[in-house]
Design brief:
The complex is a heterodimer of chains A (about 180) and B (about 160). Chain A is built from five helices and five strands. Chain A has about 180 residues and is α+β, with helices and mostly antiparallel strands. A five-stranded antiparallel beta sheet of chain A has the order 1-5-4-3-2, with no helix packed on it. Chain B contains four helices and six strands, in the order H-E-H-H-E-E-E-E-H-E. The chains are: A alpha+beta (about 180), B alpha+beta (about 160).
């Protein structure tokens, strides 16, 4: 097999191999590019206000009070824990919901957190939250992308040579030009 | 070479199935979650002890244990651990991306190891810090709550086990 044929086969097969991972990194890449204080790409966070009957004179949580508050809020999620943040301020942790109650006024602030379907999973991989073995798989993917670029460059020839050279140069020039402007 | 119609159809099905499989692989925080370095210390220090005499612990590696009462909503880069004493807490801050505390950790108990550190902020720095923290949590920021220079004691988290 000639080296050109080998180069072509490598480029084609590595390309196939990279489709899945590339799509993961594409979707997550766009999402995490737009992280702001208002947008968490992995979770949707909804805050809502409500009210319950005021409870006077409590400085420690008790289950009767907590159960009553959850009942008033129609919250049926699994209770995880309860904490008094300050005298008169109770925080109830329910699966997927954090409920802050100002006992004296009955004012309630709820924070519902939900994983964003698909985005949570692709961000989990892209941001390497898994660590461990995934680190090496991600490294291998990066190396494969490098090989894909190199084998692609070696394919610039024949009647598409000029076009290939121009497009490759543009690919290098865009980040360089941006750095000149930005720095 | 063009792929036959049946092979294309099968490939489409395969790719669709793989996406469904990916979505279904939701890492649920149902069991113990180990983050960062392994815990090394045998003894746990009470958060109330650190809060009472923080200067004694500065630069030292400590292990604390308590309920996670808050997690950074933007990047999962810090969490607040409730103290054993009422109405007290301590913040555990990690390097962004090195450890990511999941939002689901709120309300769970955690063992954390890290180095106690002291931040001395001028009035302006304290305003900026509080504003940044409020924005991360999507909360309103009231500058009147910061009245002057602030000293913050926190733990630079190295490893954690969320139970």
């Amino acid at each position: 097999m000639s080296w050109r044929r080998l180069n072509h086969v490598l480029h084609r097969d590595i390309g196939y191999l990279c489709i899945g991972m590339t799509l993961i990194y594409v979707i997550s890449g766009v999402a995490v590019n737009h992280i702001t204080h208002q947008f968490n790409p992995s979770y949707s966070i909804d805050k809502a206000e409500a009210s319950v009957r005021p409870v006077a004179g409590k400085t420690a949580p008790d289950m009767v009070m907590v159960t009553d508050i959850l009942k008033q809020l129609h919250e049926n999620g699994q209770l995880k824990n309860v904490a008094m943040l300050s005298p008169g301020n109770l925080r109830i942790f329910v699966e997927g919901n954090t409920i802050d109650v100002e006992l004296a006024t009955g004012k309630v602030q709820q924070e519902r957190v939900q994983q964003r379907p698909l985005l949570f999973q692709v961000n989990y991989l892209h941001l390497n939250k898994a660590k461990g073995g995934w680190t090496y798989l991600a490294d291998a993917y990066a190396i494969l992308l490098g090989i894909l670029a190199m084998t692609g460059m070696l394919m610039i020839r024949g009647r598409n040579r000029t076009r290939g050279l121009i497009l490759t140069c543009i690919g290098f020039l865009i980040p360089i030009a941006y750095l000149f402007v930005a720095l | 070479m063009l792929l036959s119609h049946s092979i294309r159809k099968k490939m489409k099905k395969l790719i669709f199935s793989l996406f469904i499989l990916l979505i279904s692989c939701i890492p649920v925080l149902g069991k113990e979650l180990v983050l960062g370095e392994q815990l090394q210390l045998k003894e746990t220090t009470k958060v109330s002890e650190i809060n009472a005499q923080p200067d004694k612990y500065i630069g030292k590696r400590v292990q604390i244990e308590g309920m996670i009462i808050n997690v950074c909503a933007a990047r999962g880069c810090w969490m607040d651990i409730a103290s054993d004493a009422p109405f007290q807490k301590i913040q555990v801050k990690v390097v962004d991306g090195e450890i990511v505390f999941p939002m689901e950790a709120k309300g769970r108990n955690a063992q954390v190891e890290g180095i106690v550190e002291k931040l001395e902020l001028s009035h302006e720095q304290a305003l900026g810090w509080a504003k940044h923290k409020a924005m991360e949590q999507g909360e309103d920021f009231d500058p009147a709550t910061i009245t002057g220079p602030t000293t913050i004691y926190r733990i630079r988290g190295l490893g954690a086990v969320i139970m």
